[in-house]
Amino acid sequence: MDLNALYGTDDEFERFVYSHSPGYDEPTVRAAFTHAVPLKTIVIFCYDARAAEIPFVLAKTLPDEVYPGEVVYDEAGMKVGSTATIMPVVVAGGRAVDALRSITIGNHLFGVTNIVVVHHTFCGTSSFTPHGLLDAFKAEQGKDLSGVYEQESLAIGNLRESLEHDVKLLRASVGIPRSVNIYGYLFDINTDEFRLVVSDPKVGR
Question: Which pTM value belongs to this model?
């Protein structure tokens, strides 16, 4: 398919961007997003295919949660929302550091009640150490990443410690409201069972 023929010139791509809409008013658009998606919970988990059931199981574990929900259409047949209350953020190892920007944006657009960090058993990020990854990258790629990433978030050496670290990291972030509950769960990929490891409830606004 010729995308240029379908969408026209580069300038015409602006019609797919909300902020370029005629009469655009940012507070109004933000309010519309809040009503279109009843988001309550952001769940951070690993991109390991074995962990793909996490948001589905979480919806059954937490009260009044819906996932994947249904797409909502307007009278013209346009997709304008969803009934899902859980929004997945999928990153290597389910490490919170990679999800900070997504959480800030998700809260800004939809409002957030809960943030759930999930690390799973037998995760690929537990098969190496931070130093091992850094040393290998330097040897294979000729680049030093030691000052690029927080080493505590590169690998998982202890699942309780990694969850405690990530929950603390989220709570300390200025981009996350103090009124949000933060939880750290361990997910057994062989039994699809959750175990609550860390609970950090909201501390006011």
Answer: 0.89
Summarize the confidence of residues 78-85 as an average pLDDT. Answer: 92
Number of Cβ within a 10 Å radius of residue 130 = 18
Architecture of 22-200 per CATH? 3-Layer(aba) Sandwich (3.40)
pLDDT band of 3, cuts 50, 70, 90: low
What is the DSSP code string of 20-80? GSTT--HHHHHHHHHHH----EEEEEE--GGGTTHHHHHHHHSTT--SS--EEE-TTS-EE
| Cα Rg, the chain, nearest whole Å | 20
Q: Taking the domains of the chain in order of start, what are their residue ranges?
A: 22-200
DSSP code of residue 26: H
Q: Is residue 113 within 8 Å of 40, Cβ to Cβ? A: yes
Contact 114, 125 (CB under 8 A): no
| pLDDT higher than 90, residue 4 | no
